[in-house]
Write a structure and sequence with these properties.
Elements lengths: L2 H17 L2 E6 L5 H13 L3 E4 L2 H12 L8 H6 L6 E4 L6 H13 L5 E7 L2 E4 L4 H6 L3 H39 L1
Antiparallel strand pairs: 1-3, 1-4, 2-3, 4-5
Length: about 180
Amino acid sequence: MNFDKKKAVVDYLIEKISTNNCFYIIDASELSVPDVDKLRRNCFEANVNYKVAKNSLINIALNQVFGNKAIKDFDSIEQSSLHGFSGILFAGDAFNAPAKIIEKFRKDTNNEKPVLKCAYVDGELFFGNDKIKELSSLKSKNELIADIIALLQSPVKNVVSGLESGKNKLCGVLKTLSEK
């Protein structure tokens, strides 16, 4: 790969890392071509970007974006995650989307790949494949807002429902009394 291509990949990674609150570094090696196509299709359908890149280029991009910021265990990414085959998933605000894609893909293909090396979610780092369950149970910002709205609407719905049911009961009682 020549310098211009490497620079283009690093620029792409810098742009994606700096504009997304979440990314996952995975190992999808040893997957067949149809399985990789299926993984890419699942990512596309969930609005998750999947990019395969050299570890050194991912490391350069991460250092460009996070070099001056204090992120706990940031140096651990290079030591524990940037070796072997690496792909990176960008999910924006949908923190759990890549984890759900990985879980669904594993279930559908009966395969242990892709393996989670590292995940960055809104300033926190998660290391290891055992964090997939934890990450898939995280709720995105939109899901949390929907939960809060549902909780706020619940008491109002109960009051309105009670008033409407009482109105119908009162009308029924009055009608019965008037018929007698």
